[in-house]
Design a protein that fits this description.
Length: 153
């Protein structure tokens, strides 16, 4: 191969490497947008719960066997077992009551991970109110914020 061909190939490779390294990286997401989107997931869950729609409430959770829910009976792994536990523990509207979340602290940890600490309350006039604290880990997967871990007590 003649020297001029080698030089053109060498400089062409160098230019390709330099231009490849100049690709723009996406801007870091705005934490306020993440907080808003996560608050919307929680509002949607609350609305579903208050209509007696446990599957709709569960739409805010990661539909995966890797979901973890930690409650008073210990850890539950997987979306379906978590749904089954909710259905068993809250078999009717009287047991479900009316849910509200308060004292929310939504803290984005990275572009696609956030933690939420808050208080939950079930108003159940006939069955007795329940309340407690929670820590949620959210991940943004396929453009959607979902709960991947829930520790509620």
């Amino acid at each position: 191969m003649p020297l001029s061909t080698k030089l053109v190939a060498f400089f062409g490779l160098g230019l390709a490497l330099m231009l490849g390294g100049c690709t723009s990286t996406p801007a870091a997401p705005d934490p306020a947008v993440a907080r808003h989107d996560i608050a919307q997931v929680l509002a949607t869950q609350t609305a579903a719960w208050n209509k007696g729609d446990i599957p709709g409430f569960m739409a805010g959770y990661w539909h995966s066997d890797s979901l973890v829910f930690i409650g008073r009976k210990g850890p539950t792994y997987g979306w379906q077992p978590t749904l089954d536990n909710y259905r068993k523990g809250y078999p009717d509207a009287t047991q479900m009551g009316q849910l509200d979340f308060s004292q929310l602290h939504i803290n984005p940890l990275s572009a696609d991970v956030a933690q939420v600490v808050g208080h939950w309350h079930l108003a159940r006039p006939q069955a007795g109110d329940l309340q407690g604290q929670f820590l949620l880990i959210f991940r943004q997967l396929d453009g959607k914020w979902v709960i991947v871990a829930d520790h509620s007590s």
